[in-house]
Amino acid sequence: MGEGNLDVEFNIFKIALCQLSVTPDKERNISHARKAIEDAAAKGAQLVVLPEIWNGPYSNDSFPVYAEDIDAGGDASPSTAMLSEVAQRLKITIVGGSIAERSGDQLYNTSCVFDTDGKLLAKHRKIHLFDIDIPGKITFIESKTLTAGQTPTIVDTEVGRIGIGICYDIRFQELAMIYAARGAHLICYPGAFNMTTGPLHWELLQRARATDNQLYVATCSPARDAGAGYVAWGHSTLVGPFGEVMATTEHEESIIIAEIDYSVIELRR
Ligand SMILES: O=C(O)CCC(=O)C(=O)O
Q1: What are the CN hydrolase domain coordinates in residue numbering (predicted)?
Q2: Buried-state track 136-154, b at ≥16 Cβ within 10 A, e below 16
Q3: DSSP β-ladder status, 153-157 and 138-141
Q4: Ligand 1: which atom is nearest the Cα of residue 167?
Q5: Which of 52, 68, 101, 142 is catalytic?
Q6: What percent of the chain has pLDDT over 70?
Q7: Closest residue to atom 5 of ligand 1, CA basis
Q8: d(CA 12, ligand 1 centre) in Å
Q9: Could you tell me if the CB of 192 is within 6 A of ligand 1?
Q10: Closest ligand 1 atom to the C-alpha of 194?
Q11: Is 52 a catalytic residue?
């Protein structure tokens, strides 16, 4: 047990946010993510977070093509099979960004959390789908192809109690409040904001959720590809429970390593 009255294995540990480049080549994306996770673990990270939709392009045309049957596992889900294998081999916790999930006739935008034995601890299906239309700037209607998840996801790991949201979920304070009320130390939001709302709201929302609830907030974006159909803002970030930016980056590919100390949560409160 760690210090204070927080009932977790580690109160102080390193988190890695892997801001990955994503290409149309799924096999390459999987091996690229594996390598980034290995690099992060070699630098001491005990918790590794990946971006929203990291195994293929973020587009309504691509979601059905890259979708995997996570519950079937194995060959039906090479992306999560890789995450499970690497979590177990390296003895780390992974918040596996998100991938398109196929379940029966539905598709979801789903984040999987793996423990240090490679076990799938939780699956979060994005609750608030991103339907946006800002004329002349950005139009994206996720609900054309995806179905919304129905439930908040909070999970006990060796590195604390973690609430999960995906991208647009960060705009909904109620979800973060539910996680805080249930004792979350950290909320992880894999997310791919864009060039219109990214500069305006990405950091603001992270700092707001952290300040409102006095907990850690971590986000992880894909790296920016100016030639992609959807251009991600980047700027993956860790925010502390005082709303302070503890570590961040620009839009290129990078691995952010930062220290989290949960005893600070009690101090701030
Ligand atoms: O809320 C926003 O401005 C961006 C959300 C987003 O990109 C997403 O949910 O994928």
Answers
A1: 13-262
A2: eeeebebeebbbebeebbb
A3: unpaired
A4: 9
A5: 52
A6: 97
A7: 168
A8: 31
A9: yes
A10: 7
A11: yes
> Is 266 part of the annotated catalytic residue set?
no
- The overall average pLDDT reported for the chain is 96
Residue 33: both structure tokens together = 């993510």
- What confidence tier does 6 reach under pLDDT thresholds 50, 70, 90? low
Q: Tokens 């977070």 correspond to what residue?
A: 49
For the chain, state the CA radius of gyration: 17
Does 26 participate in catalysis according to the annotation? Answer: no
The one catalytic residue in 167, 188, 203, 220 is 167
Residue among 109, 140, 197, 233 whose CB has most ligand 1 atoms within 8 A, to mutate: 197
ipTM of the complex: 0.97
Domain covering 12-268 assigned CATH 3.60.110.10 in the classification = yes
Residue 179, pLDDT > 70, answer: yes
Kindly report the pTM of this predicted structure: 0.96
Q: For residues 13 and 159, is the Cβ–Cβ distance under 8 A?
A: yes
Tell me the pLDDT tens digit for each residue of 57-103.
999 999 999 999 999 999 999 999 999 999 999 999 999 999 999 99
Residue among 202, 217, 109 at smallest CA distance from 163: 217
User: 12-19 and 45-49: which strand pairing?
Assistant: parallel
